[in-house]
Amino acid sequence: MKEIVPVILSGGSGTRLWPLSRETYPKQFLPLVGERSMLQATWQRIAPLHTHSPIVIANQEHRFVVAEQLRELGVEPAAVMLEPVGRNTAPAIAIAALQAISVGQDALLLVLPSDHIVRDQPAFQAAVTAAAEVAAAGKLATFGIAPTGPETGYGYIKAVAGSGARAVERFVEKPDLGTAKAYVASGEYYWNSGMFLFRASRYIEELQKFQPAILAACRTALEKAARDIDFIRLDADAFGASPSDSIDYAVMEKSADVVVVPMAAGWSDVGSWSALWEVSSQDADGNAHHGDVIGIDCRNTYAYGKDLIAMIGLEDVIVVQTDDALLVGRRDRIQEVKDIVARLKSEGRPEVALHRKVYRPWGAYDSIDRGDRFQVKRITVNPGATLSLQMHHHRAEHWVVVRGTAKVTRGQETLLLSENQSTYIPIGVAHRLENPGKVPLEVVEVQSGSYLGEDDIVRFEDRYGRTGET
Protein backbone atom coordinates (compact mmCIF):
# COMPACT_ATOMS: atom_id res chain seq x y z
CA MET A 1 0.00 0.00 0.00
CA LYS A 2 3.00 2.34 0.19
CA GLU A 3 2.66 2.99 -3.53
CA ILE A 4 -0.56 4.96 -3.01
CA VAL A 5 -0.56 8.75 -3.08
CA PRO A 6 -3.80 10.23 -1.72
CA VAL A 7 -5.26 13.11 -3.72
CA ILE A 8 -7.61 15.17 -1.57
CA LEU A 9 -9.98 17.44 -3.49
CA SER A 10 -10.79 20.48 -1.37
CA GLY A 11 -11.98 23.08 -3.85
CA GLY A 12 -15.72 23.05 -3.19
CA SER A 13 -17.85 25.82 -1.72
CA GLY A 14 -20.47 23.65 0.01
CA THR A 15 -23.32 26.16 -0.23
CA ARG A 16 -26.00 23.46 0.20
CA LEU A 17 -25.19 23.55 3.93
CA TRP A 18 -25.61 27.31 4.23
CA PRO A 19 -25.57 29.16 6.63
CA LEU A 20 -22.96 27.03 8.40
CA SER A 21 -21.00 26.36 5.21
CA ARG A 22 -20.05 29.44 3.18
CA GLU A 23 -17.77 30.23 0.27
CA THR A 24 -14.81 31.37 2.38
CA TYR A 25 -15.23 28.58 4.97
CA PRO A 26 -17.09 25.66 3.36
CA LYS A 27 -18.22 22.38 4.85
CA GLN A 28 -14.94 20.47 4.43
CA PHE A 29 -13.43 22.69 7.13
CA LEU A 30 -16.27 22.16 9.60
CA PRO A 31 -16.63 19.46 12.31
CA LEU A 32 -20.10 18.40 11.19
CA VAL A 33 -19.78 14.84 12.49
CA GLY A 34 -17.25 14.29 15.27
CA GLU A 35 -14.59 16.58 16.70
CA ARG A 36 -12.45 16.90 13.56
CA SER A 37 -13.30 18.72 10.36
CA MET A 38 -14.32 16.69 7.33
CA LEU A 39 -10.96 17.44 5.68
CA GLN A 40 -9.14 16.17 8.73
CA ALA A 41 -11.37 13.10 8.93
CA THR A 42 -10.58 12.35 5.29
CA TRP A 43 -6.89 12.14 6.10
CA GLN A 44 -7.50 10.14 9.26
CA ARG A 45 -9.30 7.41 7.36
CA ILE A 46 -6.40 7.20 4.89
CA ALA A 47 -3.56 7.27 7.43
CA PRO A 48 -3.89 3.62 8.59
CA LEU A 49 -3.18 2.51 5.01
CA HIS A 50 0.39 3.88 5.38
CA THR A 51 0.25 5.82 2.13
CA HIS A 52 2.52 8.60 0.91
CA SER A 53 1.89 12.19 1.97
CA PRO A 54 -1.18 13.63 0.23
CA ILE A 55 -1.46 15.97 -2.71
CA VAL A 56 -4.18 18.50 -1.89
CA ILE A 57 -6.04 20.44 -4.57
CA ALA A 58 -7.54 23.59 -3.03
CA ASN A 59 -9.12 26.90 -3.85
CA GLN A 60 -6.45 29.55 -3.41
CA GLU A 61 -8.75 31.45 -1.05
CA HIS A 62 -8.71 28.47 1.34
CA ARG A 63 -4.97 27.82 1.34
CA PHE A 64 -4.20 28.88 4.88
CA VAL A 65 -7.17 27.00 6.33
CA VAL A 66 -6.06 23.82 4.56
CA ALA A 67 -2.50 24.24 5.78
CA GLU A 68 -3.55 24.91 9.38
CA GLN A 69 -5.95 21.98 9.58
CA LEU A 70 -3.34 19.57 8.23
CA ARG A 71 -0.73 21.04 10.59
CA GLU A 72 -3.03 20.28 13.53
CA LEU A 73 -2.81 16.59 12.56
CA GLY A 74 0.96 16.70 12.03
CA VAL A 75 0.53 16.11 8.30
CA GLU A 76 3.07 17.56 5.88
CA PRO A 77 1.45 17.31 2.42
CA ALA A 78 3.49 16.41 -0.62
CA ALA A 79 1.99 19.47 -2.33
CA VAL A 80 -0.89 21.89 -1.91
CA MET A 81 -1.92 22.90 -5.44
CA LEU A 82 -3.93 26.12 -5.66
CA GLU A 83 -6.64 26.50 -8.27
CA PRO A 84 -7.07 30.12 -9.39
CA VAL A 85 -10.55 29.23 -10.64
CA GLY A 86 -12.76 26.13 -10.38
CA ARG A 87 -12.68 23.84 -13.42
CA ASN A 88 -14.37 20.71 -11.98
CA THR A 89 -12.72 17.40 -11.13
CA ALA A 90 -11.12 16.29 -14.41
CA PRO A 91 -8.59 19.17 -14.52
CA ALA A 92 -8.03 19.06 -10.75
CA ILE A 93 -7.10 15.37 -10.87
CA ALA A 94 -4.96 15.96 -13.97
CA ILE A 95 -2.93 18.50 -12.01
CA ALA A 96 -2.40 15.96 -9.22
CA ALA A 97 -1.37 13.23 -11.68
CA LEU A 98 1.07 15.53 -13.48
CA GLN A 99 2.51 16.71 -10.17
CA ALA A 100 3.03 13.13 -8.96
CA ILE A 101 4.75 12.12 -12.18
CA SER A 102 6.94 15.26 -12.14
CA VAL A 103 8.53 14.19 -8.86
CA GLY A 104 9.04 10.61 -10.01
CA GLN A 105 5.91 9.09 -8.48
CA ASP A 106 3.91 7.20 -11.09
CA ALA A 107 2.02 5.92 -8.09
CA LEU A 108 -1.53 4.83 -7.60
CA LEU A 109 -3.63 7.91 -6.94
CA LEU A 110 -6.42 7.52 -4.39
CA VAL A 111 -8.74 10.42 -5.25
CA LEU A 112 -11.03 11.48 -2.41
CA PRO A 113 -13.32 14.50 -1.99
CA SER A 114 -12.61 16.19 1.33
CA ASP A 115 -16.26 16.60 2.32
CA HIS A 116 -17.57 13.04 2.55
CA ILE A 117 -18.40 10.91 5.58
CA VAL A 118 -17.35 7.26 5.91
CA ARG A 119 -18.46 5.59 9.13
CA ASP A 120 -17.09 2.06 8.58
CA GLN A 121 -13.32 2.49 8.37
CA PRO A 122 -12.42 -1.23 7.96
CA ALA A 123 -14.87 -1.58 5.05
CA PHE A 124 -13.42 1.53 3.41
CA GLN A 125 -9.86 0.25 3.79
CA ALA A 126 -10.80 -3.19 2.43
CA ALA A 127 -12.34 -1.58 -0.66
CA VAL A 128 -9.21 0.52 -1.23
CA THR A 129 -7.03 -2.60 -0.95
CA ALA A 130 -9.19 -4.41 -3.52
CA ALA A 131 -9.13 -1.42 -5.87
CA ALA A 132 -5.35 -1.11 -5.59
CA GLU A 133 -4.90 -4.61 -7.01
CA VAL A 134 -6.82 -3.88 -10.22
CA ALA A 135 -5.43 -0.34 -10.51
CA ALA A 136 -1.89 -1.70 -10.38
CA ALA A 137 -2.81 -3.80 -13.42
CA GLY A 138 -3.84 -0.70 -15.39
CA LYS A 139 -7.54 -0.38 -14.59
CA LEU A 140 -9.28 2.83 -13.56
CA ALA A 141 -11.28 1.98 -10.45
CA THR A 142 -14.28 3.88 -9.16
CA PHE A 143 -15.96 3.07 -5.87
CA GLY A 144 -19.64 2.18 -6.05
CA ILE A 145 -21.67 2.58 -2.89
CA ALA A 146 -24.12 -0.19 -2.14
CA PRO A 147 -27.41 1.76 -2.11
CA THR A 148 -29.44 1.81 1.07
CA GLY A 149 -32.52 3.27 -0.63
CA PRO A 150 -33.82 4.92 -3.81
CA GLU A 151 -31.79 8.13 -3.51
CA THR A 152 -32.48 10.61 -6.33
CA GLY A 153 -29.61 12.95 -5.46
CA TYR A 154 -26.83 10.61 -6.63
CA GLY A 155 -25.66 9.36 -9.99
CA TYR A 156 -25.71 5.57 -10.46
CA ILE A 157 -23.31 3.01 -11.90
CA LYS A 158 -24.56 -0.22 -13.47
CA ALA A 159 -22.06 -3.03 -13.01
CA VAL A 160 -21.64 -6.20 -15.03
CA ALA A 161 -22.77 -9.24 -13.03
CA GLY A 162 -20.09 -10.85 -10.89
CA SER A 163 -18.19 -10.33 -7.67
CA GLY A 164 -15.32 -8.09 -6.61
CA ALA A 165 -14.15 -5.42 -9.03
CA ARG A 166 -16.51 -5.46 -12.01
CA ALA A 167 -16.62 -3.92 -15.43
CA VAL A 168 -18.97 -0.96 -15.78
CA GLU A 169 -21.90 -1.30 -18.13
CA ARG A 170 -22.98 2.33 -17.90
CA PHE A 171 -23.09 5.50 -15.82
CA VAL A 172 -26.52 7.02 -15.19
CA GLU A 173 -27.43 10.58 -14.26
CA LYS A 174 -29.54 11.33 -11.17
CA PRO A 175 -32.81 9.44 -11.75
CA ASP A 176 -36.38 10.20 -10.75
CA LEU A 177 -37.81 8.32 -7.77
CA GLY A 178 -39.47 5.52 -9.76
CA THR A 179 -36.30 4.81 -11.72
CA ALA A 180 -34.19 4.91 -8.56
CA LYS A 181 -36.47 2.33 -6.92
CA ALA A 182 -36.07 0.03 -9.95
CA TYR A 183 -32.28 0.43 -9.83
CA VAL A 184 -32.11 -0.50 -6.15
CA ALA A 185 -34.47 -3.47 -6.59
CA SER A 186 -32.36 -4.88 -9.44
CA GLY A 187 -29.21 -5.16 -7.33
CA GLU A 188 -27.16 -4.19 -10.39
CA TYR A 189 -26.59 -0.51 -9.57
CA TYR A 190 -24.39 1.43 -7.18
CA TRP A 191 -24.31 5.04 -6.14
CA ASN A 192 -21.50 6.95 -7.81
CA SER A 193 -19.29 8.03 -4.89
CA GLY A 194 -16.88 10.35 -6.70
CA MET A 195 -13.89 8.41 -5.28
CA PHE A 196 -11.32 6.81 -7.59
CA LEU A 197 -8.08 4.83 -7.66
CA PHE A 198 -5.75 4.51 -10.66
CA ARG A 199 -2.15 4.91 -11.68
CA ALA A 200 -1.20 8.49 -12.48
CA SER A 201 0.09 7.64 -15.95
CA ARG A 202 -3.05 5.69 -16.85
CA TYR A 203 -5.26 8.67 -16.07
CA ILE A 204 -3.00 10.91 -18.15
CA GLU A 205 -3.17 8.43 -21.05
CA GLU A 206 -6.97 8.29 -20.98
CA LEU A 207 -7.31 12.05 -20.60
CA GLN A 208 -5.03 12.54 -23.60
CA LYS A 209 -7.25 10.20 -25.57
CA PHE A 210 -10.61 11.72 -24.64
CA GLN A 211 -9.96 15.31 -23.50
CA PRO A 212 -6.57 16.48 -24.79
CA ALA A 213 -7.50 20.16 -24.34
CA ILE A 214 -7.81 19.65 -20.58
CA LEU A 215 -4.47 17.90 -20.39
CA ALA A 216 -2.70 20.55 -22.49
CA ALA A 217 -4.06 23.38 -20.34
CA CYS A 218 -3.09 21.59 -17.13
CA ARG A 219 0.44 20.88 -18.38
CA THR A 220 0.93 24.56 -19.15
CA ALA A 221 -0.63 25.64 -15.85
CA LEU A 222 1.80 23.40 -13.95
CA GLU A 223 4.83 24.35 -16.05
CA LYS A 224 4.15 28.03 -15.35
CA ALA A 225 3.18 27.51 -11.72
CA ALA A 226 4.84 29.59 -9.00
CA ARG A 227 5.95 28.47 -5.56
CA ASP A 228 4.30 30.57 -2.83
CA ILE A 229 5.60 29.68 0.64
CA ASP A 230 4.25 26.11 1.10
CA PHE A 231 1.87 26.26 -1.88
CA ILE A 232 2.05 25.81 -5.64
CA ARG A 233 0.02 28.45 -7.48
CA LEU A 234 -1.15 27.23 -10.88
CA ASP A 235 -0.86 29.71 -13.73
CA ALA A 236 -4.19 31.52 -13.83
CA ASP A 237 -4.42 32.08 -17.58
CA ALA A 238 -3.46 28.53 -18.52
CA PHE A 239 -5.67 26.82 -15.96
CA GLY A 240 -8.55 29.15 -16.73
CA ALA A 241 -8.31 28.10 -20.39
CA SER A 242 -9.02 24.46 -19.51
CA PRO A 243 -12.48 23.13 -20.34
CA SER A 244 -14.53 22.59 -17.19
CA ASP A 245 -15.53 18.94 -16.94
CA SER A 246 -15.99 16.21 -14.37
CA ILE A 247 -13.81 13.11 -14.39
CA ASP A 248 -16.94 11.03 -15.04
CA TYR A 249 -17.80 12.83 -18.27
CA ALA A 250 -14.21 13.38 -19.40
CA VAL A 251 -12.79 9.89 -18.81
CA MET A 252 -14.71 7.34 -16.77
CA GLU A 253 -17.79 7.12 -19.03
CA LYS A 254 -15.60 6.76 -22.13
CA SER A 255 -12.75 4.47 -21.09
CA ALA A 256 -12.93 0.74 -21.70
CA ASP A 257 -10.71 0.09 -18.67
CA VAL A 258 -13.03 1.33 -15.92
CA VAL A 259 -14.10 -1.02 -13.13
CA VAL A 260 -16.35 -0.45 -10.14
CA VAL A 261 -15.33 -1.69 -6.71
CA PRO A 262 -18.33 -2.13 -4.37
CA MET A 263 -18.14 -0.37 -1.01
CA ALA A 264 -20.56 -0.65 1.90
CA ALA A 265 -18.93 1.66 4.42
CA GLY A 266 -21.59 4.00 5.76
CA TRP A 267 -20.77 6.60 3.12
CA SER A 268 -22.49 9.96 2.59
CA ASP A 269 -21.53 13.04 0.63
CA VAL A 270 -23.51 15.12 3.16
CA GLY A 271 -25.06 17.05 0.30
CA SER A 272 -27.87 18.65 2.32
CA TRP A 273 -29.08 19.29 5.85
CA SER A 274 -31.46 16.34 5.52
CA ALA A 275 -28.50 14.11 4.60
CA LEU A 276 -26.62 15.34 7.65
CA TRP A 277 -29.65 14.53 9.81
CA GLU A 278 -29.62 11.00 8.41
CA VAL A 279 -25.98 10.34 9.39
CA SER A 280 -26.18 12.05 12.79
CA SER A 281 -26.87 10.33 16.10
CA GLN A 282 -30.58 10.56 16.87
CA ASP A 283 -32.67 10.13 19.99
CA ALA A 284 -35.65 7.78 20.28
CA ASP A 285 -37.85 10.30 18.45
CA GLY A 286 -35.46 10.74 15.54
CA ASN A 287 -34.13 14.12 16.71
CA ALA A 288 -30.49 15.07 16.04
CA HIS A 289 -29.67 18.12 18.16
CA HIS A 290 -26.26 19.78 18.46
CA GLY A 291 -25.62 22.54 20.98
CA ASP A 292 -27.92 24.04 23.61
CA VAL A 293 -31.23 22.69 22.32
CA ILE A 294 -34.45 22.08 24.24
CA GLY A 295 -37.04 20.14 22.28
CA ILE A 296 -40.56 19.40 23.53
CA ASP A 297 -42.74 16.96 21.59
CA CYS A 298 -40.48 17.08 18.53
CA ARG A 299 -39.86 14.30 16.01
CA ASN A 300 -37.34 13.79 13.21
CA THR A 301 -35.82 17.26 13.64
CA TYR A 302 -32.29 18.56 13.22
CA ALA A 303 -31.04 21.55 15.22
CA TYR A 304 -27.58 23.13 15.29
CA GLY A 305 -26.49 26.29 17.07
CA LYS A 306 -24.38 27.95 19.76
CA ASP A 307 -27.12 29.89 21.56
CA LEU A 308 -30.20 28.36 23.15
CA ILE A 309 -32.67 26.90 20.64
CA ALA A 310 -36.13 26.04 21.99
CA MET A 311 -38.44 23.90 19.83
CA ILE A 312 -42.03 22.88 20.55
CA GLY A 313 -44.23 20.47 18.62
CA LEU A 314 -42.09 20.37 15.48
CA GLU A 315 -41.75 17.46 13.08
CA ASP A 316 -39.42 17.02 10.08
CA VAL A 317 -37.91 20.49 10.55
CA ILE A 318 -34.33 21.74 10.21
CA VAL A 319 -33.10 24.65 12.40
CA VAL A 320 -29.57 25.99 11.91
CA GLN A 321 -28.34 29.00 13.85
CA THR A 322 -25.07 30.89 13.32
CA ASP A 323 -23.83 34.22 14.69
CA ASP A 324 -25.46 36.18 11.88
CA ALA A 325 -28.14 33.97 10.29
CA LEU A 326 -30.98 31.59 11.11
CA LEU A 327 -32.28 28.90 8.74
CA VAL A 328 -35.60 27.16 9.39
CA GLY A 329 -37.12 24.77 6.87
CA ARG A 330 -38.92 21.49 6.30
CA ARG A 331 -36.65 18.52 5.74
CA ASP A 332 -38.35 17.64 2.46
CA ARG A 333 -37.70 21.13 1.07
CA ILE A 334 -34.37 21.98 2.65
CA GLN A 335 -32.55 21.49 -0.68
CA GLU A 336 -34.14 24.80 -1.66
CA VAL A 337 -31.52 26.53 0.49
CA LYS A 338 -29.73 26.91 -2.85
CA ASP A 339 -32.41 29.42 -3.80
CA ILE A 340 -31.67 31.39 -0.63
CA VAL A 341 -27.98 31.44 -1.53
CA ALA A 342 -28.78 32.57 -5.07
CA ARG A 343 -30.90 35.42 -3.73
CA LEU A 344 -28.17 36.50 -1.32
CA LYS A 345 -25.71 36.57 -4.21
CA SER A 346 -28.04 38.60 -6.41
CA GLU A 347 -28.45 41.14 -3.61
CA GLY A 348 -24.70 41.32 -2.94
CA ARG A 349 -25.13 40.23 0.69
CA PRO A 350 -21.92 39.28 2.53
CA GLU A 351 -23.62 36.37 4.34
CA VAL A 352 -23.31 34.24 1.21
CA ALA A 353 -19.52 34.16 1.49
CA LEU A 354 -18.43 35.33 4.93
CA HIS A 355 -19.16 34.26 8.46
CA ARG A 356 -19.17 36.88 11.15
CA LYS A 357 -15.93 35.26 12.31
CA VAL A 358 -13.34 35.27 9.50
CA TYR A 359 -10.18 33.16 9.63
CA ARG A 360 -6.84 34.53 8.49
CA PRO A 361 -3.37 32.93 8.36
CA TRP A 362 -2.42 34.84 11.52
CA GLY A 363 -5.61 34.03 13.46
CA ALA A 364 -9.15 35.37 13.11
CA TYR A 365 -11.43 38.35 13.59
CA ASP A 366 -15.05 38.46 14.72
CA SER A 367 -17.18 41.47 13.70
CA ILE A 368 -19.19 41.83 16.88
CA ASP A 369 -20.91 45.15 16.17
CA ARG A 370 -21.38 47.59 13.30
CA GLY A 371 -23.21 50.83 12.65
CA ASP A 372 -23.00 54.07 10.71
CA ARG A 373 -19.29 54.97 10.41
CA PHE A 374 -18.07 52.45 13.00
CA GLN A 375 -17.31 48.76 13.40
CA VAL A 376 -16.11 46.72 16.38
CA LYS A 377 -14.00 43.58 15.92
CA ARG A 378 -12.52 41.04 18.29
CA ILE A 379 -9.13 40.09 16.86
CA THR A 380 -7.23 36.93 17.86
CA VAL A 381 -3.57 36.65 16.81
CA ASN A 382 -1.85 33.28 17.16
CA PRO A 383 1.41 33.05 19.14
CA GLY A 384 4.32 34.22 16.99
CA ALA A 385 2.01 35.44 14.22
CA THR A 386 1.89 38.89 12.66
CA LEU A 387 -0.51 40.87 10.53
CA SER A 388 0.77 42.63 7.43
CA LEU A 389 2.34 46.08 7.50
CA GLN A 390 -0.59 48.03 6.12
CA MET A 391 -2.52 51.29 5.98
CA HIS A 392 -6.08 52.45 5.34
CA HIS A 393 -7.30 55.42 3.33
CA HIS A 394 -10.71 55.77 4.94
CA ARG A 395 -10.65 54.49 8.50
CA ALA A 396 -8.85 54.98 11.81
CA GLU A 397 -8.48 52.20 14.37
CA HIS A 398 -8.39 52.03 18.17
CA TRP A 399 -6.83 48.87 19.66
CA VAL A 400 -7.39 47.66 23.23
CA VAL A 401 -5.43 44.62 24.42
CA VAL A 402 -7.64 42.32 26.50
CA ARG A 403 -5.35 39.30 26.67
CA GLY A 404 -1.67 38.67 25.97
CA THR A 405 1.01 41.05 24.74
CA ALA A 406 0.91 43.08 21.53
CA LYS A 407 3.85 44.46 19.58
CA VAL A 408 2.55 47.40 17.58
CA THR A 409 4.22 49.21 14.70
CA ARG A 410 2.68 52.67 14.25
CA GLY A 411 4.45 54.80 11.67
CA GLN A 412 8.04 55.05 12.89
CA GLU A 413 7.15 53.94 16.44
CA THR A 414 7.24 50.48 17.98
CA LEU A 415 5.05 49.90 21.04
CA LEU A 416 4.72 46.97 23.44
CA LEU A 417 1.25 46.80 24.95
CA SER A 418 -0.03 44.51 27.71
CA GLU A 419 -3.53 43.81 28.96
CA ASN A 420 -5.79 46.86 29.42
CA GLN A 421 -3.46 49.09 27.40
CA SER A 422 -4.47 50.68 24.10
CA THR A 423 -3.29 52.69 21.10
CA TYR A 424 -4.74 54.71 18.23
CA ILE A 425 -3.93 54.31 14.51
CA PRO A 426 -4.84 57.44 12.50
CA ILE A 427 -6.05 57.29 8.90
CA GLY A 428 -3.17 56.86 6.44
CA VAL A 429 -0.56 55.71 8.98
CA ALA A 430 1.30 52.45 8.28
CA HIS A 431 0.84 49.95 11.09
CA ARG A 432 1.26 46.33 12.08
CA LEU A 433 0.06 44.11 14.93
CA GLU A 434 2.20 41.21 16.18
CA ASN A 435 1.98 38.60 18.91
CA PRO A 436 5.46 38.04 20.39
CA GLY A 437 4.09 35.89 23.20
CA LYS A 438 3.23 32.24 23.74
CA VAL A 439 -0.51 32.64 24.33
CA PRO A 440 -3.11 33.94 21.85
CA LEU A 441 -3.31 37.72 21.69
CA GLU A 442 -6.83 39.14 21.92
CA VAL A 443 -7.52 42.72 20.88
CA VAL A 444 -10.75 44.70 20.62
CA GLU A 445 -10.55 46.95 17.57
CA VAL A 446 -12.87 49.91 17.06
CA GLN A 447 -12.85 51.22 13.49
CA SER A 448 -14.25 54.61 12.58
CA GLY A 449 -14.44 56.37 9.25
CA SER A 450 -16.37 56.96 6.06
CA TYR A 451 -15.71 53.49 4.59
CA LEU A 452 -15.07 50.28 6.53
CA GLY A 453 -14.81 47.64 3.77
CA GLU A 454 -12.14 44.95 3.89
CA ASP A 455 -10.78 46.15 0.55
CA ASP A 456 -9.52 49.38 2.15
CA ILE A 457 -6.17 47.77 2.87
CA VAL A 458 -2.82 48.67 1.30
CA ARG A 459 -0.25 46.02 2.24
CA PHE A 460 3.44 46.97 2.18
CA GLU A 461 4.87 43.77 3.68
CA ASP A 462 3.25 40.43 4.41
CA ARG A 463 4.68 37.20 5.78
CA TYR A 464 1.99 35.22 3.99
CA GLY A 465 2.48 36.56 0.46
CA ARG A 466 -0.79 38.53 0.37
CA THR A 467 0.48 41.88 -0.88
CA GLY A 468 -2.03 42.97 -3.51
CA GLU A 469 -4.83 40.92 -1.87
CA THR A 470 -7.62 42.02 0.44
Description of the molecule:
With 470 residues, the protein is α/β, with parallel strands linked by helices. The chain has 3 domains: 4-268, Alpha-Beta Complex (Spore Coat Polysaccharide Biosynthesis Protein SpsA, Chain A); 283-341, no CATH class; 357-461, Jelly Rolls (Sandwich). Helices cover 23% and strands 33% of the residues. It has 11 helices and 30 strands. Strands 20-21-22-29-24-27 form a 6-stranded antiparallel sheet, with no helix packed on it. A 5-stranded mixed barrel has the order 6-9-7-8-12. The protein has a 4-stranded mixed sheet with strand order 14-16-18-19, with helices on one face. Strand 20 and strand 21 form a beta hairpin. Helix 3 (89-102) crosses helix 6, helix 3 (89-102) crosses helix 7 (212-223) and helix 6 crosses helix 7. The longest helix has 16 residues, at 121-136. The protein starts with a strand and ends in a 9-residue tail after the last strand. The model has no long low-confidence stretch (mean pLDDT 93).
Q: How much helix is in the residues?
A: 10-25%
Sheet with the most strands, sense and barrel status = 6 strands, antiparallel
- How much is the average pLDDT? 93
What amount of the residues lies in strands? 25-35%
